[in-house]
Amino acid sequence: MGIRLIAGLALLAGMPVSAQGAMPDCGTGPAAAAAANAAGFDTLEWAPFRRPERGWAVYANKIAAEIATRCTIDTPGFAAALARWQVAHGLPATGVVDAPGFAVMNAGWTAARPRLPVASDGSCTPAPPGVLALASASESYGNKVIMLRRDALAAYRQLRAAAARELPPVDADWFRIFSGFRAPEADAQRCLVEGNCDGIVRAVCSVHRTGLAIDLHVGHAPGFGPDSSDDGNRRAMVRTLAYRWLVTNAARFGFANYVFEPWHWEFVPPSRSMASTRPPAPGKTK
Ligand SMILES: [Zn+2]
Predict the structure, then answer these.
(1) In angstroms, what is the C-alpha Rg of the chain?
(2) Rounded distance from Cα 171 to ligand 1 centre (Å)
(3) What is the pTM of this model?
(4) What pLDDT shows up at residue 24?
(5) Is 44 exposed, middle or buried (0-12, 13-18, 19+ CB in 10 A)?
(6) Distance in Å, CA 30 to ligand 1 centroid
(7) What is the model's pLDDT at position 262?
(8) 263 Cα: distance to centroid of ligand 1 (angstroms)
(9) How many CB atoms lie within 10 A of CB 78?
(10) Separation of 87 CA from ligand 1 center, angstroms?
(11) From ligand 1's centre to the CA of 207, what distance in Å?
(12) Cα 179 to ligand 1 centre (Å)
């Protein structure tokens, strides 16, 4: 079995320096599960986001971060880490990446994203103009006018400064924002003028209406744009240093990813973070 260097390098490159300690023992664990993961990486037939997909390469970095391993995806050590995660979540300890386990992971990732207040008529309230701030030209991709909620923009600036410190010089377009706040009227206009009705069709209450969501340039495959959800493009995106760094570091700055879209990140204001507002469970405090 060949070692999948891409996944292994991806994890190391994206990891904070402080976490890059001694390599774990990746040779210990269920060998059959390791072989199944190596096969499924490119061939698993499933539909984790309703659209049929082949393989789970797009989600490999996120899965590895979730199960807290730096072992490459085809190793027994990776399978063992996954089996431990499965046990902790009440799932059969197969050590194999599959749809039911991924659904549990994704439910946790989704719960960590900001939720919109939805009115009884199904509408949602966009961010009031007063709380929005304008991103600078060097923060915008393609000279777009980018507005974000002030706290989200401040957090983005901290994130980008950290990326500049912690990564080698990267593509000048990486980490630039190509979409932030989107007003309902702008979505409607885009639908009318450009025939791009995604903003309306995708979600009545798109989180872009809160000013908390940012679409970041994390690279793309030749011939594709930075927001193309073509599977080949998504596979290229998740291999970039920018995306790999974000997967392991964006949470430090309050950002969570919608994993189907490697470019889409959402700022969770501290006051709305479950971790900071939920009181300790009775009897669980030490
Ligand atoms: Zn987005």
Answers:
(1) 20
(2) 21
(3) 0.82
(4) 77
(5) buried
(6) 38
(7) 98
(8) 7
(9) 31
(10) 33
(11) 8
(12) 7
CB atoms closer than 10 angstroms to residue 138: 8
Q: Which residues of the chain have pLDDT under 70?
A: 1-23, 115-126, 129, 187-188, 190-191, 194-205, 270-286
Q: Which two tokens stand for residue 15?
A: 């990891």
List of E strands, 19-123: 45-49, 51-54
Which one, of 138, 222, 220, 210, lies nearest residue 176 by Cα? 138
Distance 81 CA to ligand 1 centre (A): 31
- Token pair for 32: 């059959």
Q: Tokens for 203?
A: 């979600």
Predicted pLDDT of residue 6 = 41
Please state whether beta strands 147-149 and 177-179 pair in parallel, antiparallel, or not at all (unpaired): unpaired
What separation in Å is there between the alpha carbon of 51 and the centre of ligand 1? 18
| pLDDT, position 193 | 73
d(CA 282, CA 269): 26
Digit-coded pLDDT (tens) for 42-71: 999 999 999 999 999 999 999 999 999 999
What is the whole-number distance in angstroms between the Cα of residue 127 and the centre of ligand 1?
16
Cα–ligand 1 centroid distance for 2 (angstroms): 36
Q: How far is the CA of 28 from the centre of ligand 1 (A)?
A: 40
Give residue 206 CA to ligand 1 midpoint distance, Å: 8
Q: How far is the CA of 73 from the centre of ligand 1 (A)?
A: 28
Residue with tokens 């260097």: 5
Which 3 state secondary structure label does DSSP give 48? strand
